Amino acid sequence: MDENESLVELLEEVFGDHGLHYPNRGQISFNCPQCDEGRNKHNLEVNYFNNVFHCWACGDTEGTHGHLGKLFDLYGNKKQKKLFRVLCPDNREKIVKVKKPKVVLPDNFTLFKDSHPVYPVRKQAINYLHNRGISDYMIEKYQIGFCDKGSHAGRIIIPSYGLNGELNYYIGRSWDPNSRAKYRNPEAEKEKIIFWENLIDWNKDIYLVEGAFDGMFLDNPVVMLGKHMSELLFETIYEKANGNVIICLDGDAWNNAVKLYHELNGGKLWGKVKILKLPKDRDVCDLKGQIDEYYYEIRD
After folding, report:
1. In the sheet where 167-174 sits, what is the strand order?
2. 97/267 Cα distance (integer angstroms)
3. Residue-wise pLDDT tens digits, 221-265
4. Of 129, 160, 168, 202, which is least packed with CB atoms within 10 Å of its CB?
């Protein structure tokens, strides 16, 4: 048994059965000994990788957030406190820095607003977008451009920027239906960035979507760049999301959507996670954002 497993057992000894547990993130939830009162809400979140805890129900009061050692000092017996200090001799908060990849836009990238309206390649590119329902307003909002030559010739380029305004990723989508490779994206690790992070308002409802094209049709989208959520995005949503979290995966990804719902719907986000069930052959892009009739209730 490794150190983390021993620490989980010790936490269970002090606080009883746990709720959600993500061993790969070091995150586990328990009933809060201060505010739960037998309701089994599992609002007390512990991250044993970083040695911190927080109760999402009463976390602004003394003794309900901070370093893990404080939690054992408050609720552990003498033996449990001693064992914790054996397992975690350095009980200081650990800060994990995420190394962001350097990304540059492809050579010959041109914004639509900076190109001549009658340029033939520009007309091909913008016709492709308009045929997908992408408006000129969306093109400007998301700073979409295209490449007429070079390694990304014949591709729409959708850039993404971080909170500091630095480019962190881009989508390169071919508008040629016969292209052998629809997408050509940078080699950067997409699991270590949040797409369109500079545009997300965490105080409003957020809409989780698979791809950028879907996201353009919704207010305040959060793009996962696939059917699975990265650890960084999961932790960021859990920390920052103050509104509802609406899962809007494609119709053929229903099982992924349900799994994601159960992963998110707990602790601070309990009762705030909503889900859409789309027809198997449809996605948000097909629906042009008209999603109201597709909300689905999952009974926990």
Report:
1. 109-111, 145-147, 155-161, 167-174
2. 25
3. 999 999 999 989 998 999 999 999 999 999 999 999 999 999 899
4. 202
Instruction: Report, at the CATH architecture level, how domain 200-300 is classified.
Output: 3-Layer(aba) Sandwich (3.40)
Q: Compute the radius of gyration of the chain from its Cα atoms.
A: 23
CATH superfamily of 99-190: DNA primase, catalytic core, N-terminal domain (3.90.980.10)
Pick from 142, 208, 136, 139: nearest CA to 170: 142
Report the Cα 5 to chain-centroid distance in Å. 27
Domain residue spans of the chain = 3-87, 99-190, 200-300
CB 282 within 8 A of CB 239: no
**Sequence letter at residue 286:** D
Sheet holding 21-22, edge to edge: 21-22, 27-30, 44-47, 52-55, 65-67
